[in-house]
Amino acid sequence: SGDLDPVATMWWIVGMYLVGGGFILAHFLPARNLGVKYEDRGEAVVSQDPPKNSALKTFWIYFGIITAMLGAMKVAEGYLVTIVLKEELGSYEAIRNMMAQYYFAGSFIIIFLGLATGRLVQLKHISPIFMFVLYMALVLVVGITALATNAFIVFICLAVIQRVGEACLYNPGLHMVFTGFSGRMRTQIRSAHSTYYYTAVGLPLALLFSYTSIAMESERNMLGSMIIVLLVAGLAMIMKFETSLVDTLYASVYQGTKAAKIAAVQTLSFLKPPRYGRKMSRLLQDNPKHVLRKTIILGLGYVDNDQQATEAILHQFRSDQEEIQIAVLD
Question: What pTM was estimated for this model as a whole?
Answer without folding.
Answer: 0.78
